[in-house]
Every structure is written in C-alpha cells, then in structure tokens.
C-alpha cells in the first residue's frame, strides 16, 4: 500500500491545529482544532471530510500529549489513525528557524536541540512547537517527522535587507537580524499568484500582503524573498490586530524612563494592546468597518493609520523590486475585506495599481484578479493555504522514501 498521507500539526501555546491530507490530490481527509489545552474548558472540534461527519468534545485536556492522543483517537474513529500504513509523515509548523534552517528538515535530536536554542528569539512560539514535535515523535517514533519553518522562505534576503544598522558583533552574538514570518504563506501565495498570471514563479515579481490579525508584507523577486516587514520578531512592520508594527525604538526607553513601565508591561502593550485594538478597542476589521459606517471617528482613524502603513510598504517594496507584476492580498482580512484592498491601492494609479470596484466586491473562494482589464500591475486576491504548503514540502522531502 502506497504512503500518500501527511498529517500537519500546528502546535500553539494552548492549542493544536491539525489536518490530514492525501497528497495524491491534495484533498483534506480530516481537519480539527484542540483549544484551551490545560484548562477545564478544553474543546476539540473534529471534521472528517471523507464522511462529512463532525464531532465536538468538551472537557479538560491536561497538556499537549493528552491533546495529541485525543486527536489520534478521533482520527482512528474515522479509520484514519496514526497507525495507518498510508501515513507517510507528520509535518510540523515551526515558527522560528533562525539562519540555521533554510529548508524543510527531517527532525532528529540535533534539529530539536537547535530549535530549542532559538527559544530566546521566539519565546512564545518555539516551546509550543517543540512540545508538539516531541509528543508526536513519542506516538510514532518510526515515522518521519518534518519541521517546516515560518522563517525559511525569507532566508534568501540579501544582507542589505536582513541586517539592522547596529554593531554586527553584538548582532551576531545575540542572533539579531530580520528573520520574517508567515513564510509558508508568502511562499504559497507568491507561487499561486504566478500561476494565476500564467507564468512561472521565476518570471514574476510579487508584493504579497498577508493581512490577518498578524500581518506582514514581502517583496518576492523571481520566486525568492528579497525583503519582508516582520523582523527579529513578529512585532515589526504593518499595523496589526493587537501589535503596533513599526515604532521608534526610543518609545520603549521613554515608556520605561518617563512612564515608569517595566519591560514586561511594555512588551504586553506593544504586542497585545496596540495595533487596531489599541487605537479603537477592536481588532476585528468587520466590526471596525461597521463602526466607520455608523460614523465612528475613532474607528475611522484606526483604519486610516492601518491603510497608511500598508500603502507605505507597497510603495517601498515597489522601489525594492523595481518592476512589479502583481500585488496579492491574502489571509483573513486580505481575502475578505474589500474596503481594505480598495483603500490600500487608492492613489497609486501612477504605479499602475488599481482595483475594479465590481471585481473587488465579489466574494469567491478561489484566486482571482480584481484589477481592471489590461492593468499594468495585476491586483489579486489569493487565498493562502499554509497547511497544504507544509504538507507539500513535507511530502516532497520524505514521501517517496517513507
């Protein structure tokens, strides 16, 4: 029996998202989420796409080991258990791979140790990713397990884009540089945008705008990232749901010295109480647009600040690339918020950018162009699929040898 299935695991600090895919046709066999791990109100939502059945379990799930064992049990109920001879590998999303990991990597003890050494630059993400990996390895020690890194796609950036203008000895000692994140999304969307244009990725320059609660932009030249908005951490760059994005570093000193705030308080402010939420009390773009339509000036200003930053990055990456073939919007806001797309390119007609109002207003599932016919630069909506990207990279690495 051929091994064509890949289980994708995305282990967060208190959650596990999973998908089981058949790589013969990239179909989803099962999809699920375990959330609130470690609480009395834990919940597992499981959907089997082959049978159309869905289940929900409520009750305490103590830790990630218990969570993954429960996931295995739910998959087994549908005949899709981890002991299936058709399972080729398990692919893990790992947020930070530093400069050490530039490609998907088969996990062994040395790889685990290096991911652990990167915890200081990814304290919120890598520990949870490690827990998921260790638990999955314990459940199936004989099965290839692959780490796919959010940062890997961005390792092609030239040093002029990746380096900060600080003492290189200090920077190297503490691993300080621009790493970038959402790499699996940027890789997938840039490639799909090229396909939408009927060209090979090597022929196309794309600005990818991944706009969700977390948001990032990238400049992709011929299929390779040459710049991206997130930096050492996911805090830098665009205005996000709860993150400030770009900020004068002296604001931190000012808040500490004049405001009397601790480093932890400033960290919480900038990561969890800033961005759209900090500006107007909402980080859901749908609610912000509803408030704007009702005449809410606070929501209107938050939206304007969000768009201003976004437009600045489009212009900056246009300059970096020199020639732009397409601008692609993706993720929750990018795929669904037509007013954001319209506002982001408004006034950029001189750069060849515009949206067709009717095409922009259409809600559809697949990749599509929303620019006018004959536009010099294509503007596209391209739904991201990070799970498929992880599964594809995992299967390409080990599928034929498993």
Topology of helices and strands:
Layout: E1 5-11, E2 16-22, E3 27-35, E4 43-48, E5 53-58, H1 64-77, E6 87-94, E7 105-106, H2 109-117, H3 126-139, E8 145-149, H4 159-162, H5 168-173, H6 183-196, E9 205-211, E10 215-221, E11 224-228, H7 250-257, H8 263-272, H9 275-280, H10 285-293, H11 297-321, E12 326-330, H12 331-336, H13 338-345, H14 357-361, E13 368-369, E14 378-381, H15 386-398
Parallel strand pairs: 1-6, 6-8, 9-12, 12-14
Antiparallel strand pairs: 1-2, 2-3, 3-4, 4-5, 7-8, 9-10, 10-11, 13-14
Helix pairs in contact: 1-3, 10-11, 11-13
Notes on the structure:
This protein is of the alpha/beta class and 402 residues long. Helices cover 38% and strands 20% of the residues. It contains 15 helices and 14 strands. The protein has helices spanning 64-77, 109-117, 126-139, 159-162, 168-173, 183-196, 250-257, 263-272, 275-280, 285-293, 297-321, 331-336, 338-345, 357-361, 386-398, and strands spanning 5-11, 16-22, 27-35, 43-48, 53-58, 87-94, 105-106, 145-149, 205-211, 215-221, 224-228, 326-330, 368-369, 378-381. An eight-stranded mixed beta sheet has the order 5-4-3-2-1-6-8-7, sandwiched between helices. Strands 11-10-9-12-14-13 form a six-stranded mixed beta sheet, with helices on both faces. It starts with a strand and ends with a helix.
Features:
402 residues, alpha/beta, eight-stranded mixed beta sheet, 15 helices, globular
